[in-house]
User: Which sequence fits this backbone?
């Protein structure tokens, strides 16, 4: 079950804010197009397409595995900046003094899902991972630090924010299914999830 440090903030973004965020995501995707990552070792494609914003982006492929890097793996360009609205959400809900360094953007089309996983490629585990959902409703599950720990399921809707921090920072979680056509926010349908992460520790304080 979801432990301490798990937060679901329903409708954290108003419909107007959601539309503004969609525009910002479209601008990011114009500079850094969605691409299909592949699994480490097997090279099996993910069912979601991904892109990133921020100084670092999370990528995965057969040879290099899961990692953060400053450039898009297909275009070789630096990732665009994280949209301001997301930085504000981080300040409001993350409880962490430094800004996020990575914003991973997942795009789910019909039939896409996300297997149960831990987010553990970040050096800085004191910072939470904060996610924002846009578009179609999805069934999200969250359990404990062990894959077999009991899981809780909930439907995430457009504008909902999830925070995995503290005891829940390394909780297993994933997306079981997306309900096609449940939202008309995205012109082409589907679901977008944005996750904000701090990758490196805060710089040491000198005061
Ligand atoms: C998704 N979310 O909602 C997948 N990770 O599409 C995640 O993998 C996730 O929602 C870390 C923290 C919150 C999340
Ligand atoms: Fe995750």
Assistant:
């Amino acid at each position: 079950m979801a432990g301490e440090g798990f937060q679901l903030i329903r409708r954290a973004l108003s419909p107007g804010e959601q539309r503004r965020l969609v525009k910002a995501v479209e601008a990011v995707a114009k500079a850094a197009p969605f691409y299909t990552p592949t699994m480490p070792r097997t090279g099996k494609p993910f069912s979601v397409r991904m892109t990133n914003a921020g100084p670092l982006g999370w990528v995965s492929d057969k040879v290099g595995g899961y990692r953060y890097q400053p450039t898009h793996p297909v275009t070789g360009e630096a990732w665009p900046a994280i949209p301001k609205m997301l930085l504000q959400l981080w300040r409001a809900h993350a409880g962490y003094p430094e800004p996020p360094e990575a914003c991973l953007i997942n795009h789910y089309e019909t039939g896409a899902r996300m297997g149960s996983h831990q987010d553990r490629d970040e050096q800085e585990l004191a910072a939470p991972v904060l996610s924002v959902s846009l578009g179609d409703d999805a069934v999200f599950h969250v359990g404990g630090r062990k894959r077999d720990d009991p899981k809780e399921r909930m439907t995430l809707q457009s504008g909902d924010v999830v925070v995995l921090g503290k005891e829940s920072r390394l909780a297993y979680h994933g997306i079981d299914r997306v309900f096609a056509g449940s939202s008309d926010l995205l012109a082409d349908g589907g679901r977008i999830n944005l996750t904000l992460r701090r990758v490196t520790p805060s710089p040491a304080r000198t005061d």
